[in-house]
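Ticket #4471: structure output looks truncated?

Reporter: J.K.
Steps to reproduce: submitted the chain below (272 residues) through the standard prediction queue, then opened the result file.
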Amino acid sequence: MPFISGQAMLGSYLALGGRSLKQSLALRRDQLGREQRIVHRFYPWDGYVPASEPDVARSSVLMVSWHGAPLAGINDGSSDGNIRSVARKLKAMKRPILLRWGWEMNGGWFEWSGPQNGGPANYVKAYRRIHRIFTDQGADNVAWVWSPNWNSAPNTAANRIQKYYPGDDYVDWVGVSGYNFFGESPSTLFNPVTRIYGDRKPVILTETAAVKKKSAWIKQLSTWVAKTPAVGAVVWFDTDTQHDSANNFRFDTDSSALSAYRAMARTPRFQG
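Returned output as attached by the reporter:
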């Protein structure tokens, strides 16, 4: 999936209360006057993976966050059959897919994280194994998104973001998750990753949203992206139904936030 310098794609994960994906996409299309350039979906590790995404426009790129699993069961080869099956299903979709496997691995909250699995080396080994299997299956419509959290937990030398990087041959896009839960600015959240990897790979903000002072923060984000050429995509976490959070991440919770987001979407920078 080519990265066009100077242009960024704008998309979202959509889960709006009382609306289907199709209805949610229609609402955002009406509000923004455009399709989502990226539509973000979550798939389980070894459960249902759809044969297609009929509600996602063919002009949109599908980003799949594919859950991980405890890494020992990947690295010992016992999950190879499942990995091959998912590779074949994504290949058969015959559309560009951004694949974000095992995200936020540098935090301790997921079962595939380094802190829960003996450290970063085991994550890198699993990532490379999955990548090789996809290559063997000919899933060349898949672009690989390596996507840490903006900061590591625990914040130790052994758990540094860089230790999880599987290598340039295995990564097409560098992703990062970051929200302003405590008032963090876009530069605080995203500069560390863009400084390390922005001259090697295009950067995608795979999960982001404003929690505090939405209108002002969206304007800050637009300004930050405008002056950060390494950023090739921003994917808003657009939901009010997150089961483990009381936060409403939608950008249309008030008219000023919606206006700021609409203005950002219409800037020349976000015409990718």
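Triage note (M.O.): checked the attachment and the full token line is present. The chain has one domain: 9-270.
Status: closed, working as intended.
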